[in-house]
Known about the structure:
Elements: H1 3-15, H2 21-28, H3 35-44, H4 50-65, H5 71-85, H6 110-135, H7 148-159, H8 183-211, H9 215-230, H10 236-254, H11 270-273, H12 277-302
Helix pairs in contact: 1-3, 1-6, 3-6, 4-5, 4-6, 6-7, 8-12, 9-10, 9-12
Amino acid sequence: MKSSSVVWLFVLLISFGIASPASFAQGLGATQLGPGLQNFADCQTRVVGHHEHLIADRLQAKLDKNTALTPEEHDIWAAEIRALRQVTPSQPFKAPDPKNPQRYFLGLTNAEQVAINSMHNRAVQENNLACEKKYGGMTRYSPGSDQSGQAAYEKGLKDNIQAATDIATIPVEPIPSPYPKTREQMQEERRAKQEANRQAAGQTISACTEGAKGLRLRIMADKMQQRLNSSKGLSAKERADFEADIKATRDAADKKLDYAPPVDPKNPNRAMMRLTAQEQMEVTTEFSNQYLAQMQNCVHAGTPSRPPAH
């Protein structure tokens, strides 16, 4: 791995609070760095604090919108913001409450955290490229040496710079109140809300599915009515029996039954036999199409909008 790549990796860890500037210097043997690599290291650390400042800006915007906090709660958030703003390459974050060093995260939604991380990652990548162009590569310190390798490396860095989600595209909402809440409490609230959404969705789908009962019998009754309308030469009794079978089928559909009780118990399949094999197939096809459409509508109606992440 290039020395400059090692420097960039340590700076990325520092910028996310995983390493400290002191460990960074010790890890690279900063007291023994040559001027070129020292300049490169100093250049890379310019992004230290950028992540915290993005968080501070967002928390301040949320705090400005909040009217539900008590003065004590407001002061807690103000202290978190102030501590975040004080972070610099030479000044690591000092939590106002050492027992809760990442309390500021409770004021950000998941979407806000993702956006801030993406903006910071891009800033680190862009700064890394700028530092490479100015100080990177040992060949730049050898007059007349081939610079093509360094140029290709810089092009790769540029091509791999990731797009960022602008935090400004996410609506600003007040900081949650009452405060403070632990991560466990917030996770439990999210879990309870998700469970409530699932139950509501299940009830919606169940009610919608219930409405589809009787559909096959309604389609069958319509097909039988078409058959009766086109039939010629029926006697009065034959027509009356046919109409009785249609009515029994419609009544069963209205009651959401799966099958219609036979009008003539001695001939339980009489209603079904009113239809030809082709017509029965048409009933099955029409039922499948309508049932599928209704189920798709049920799923859509029963799927709640995704709640904002907290």
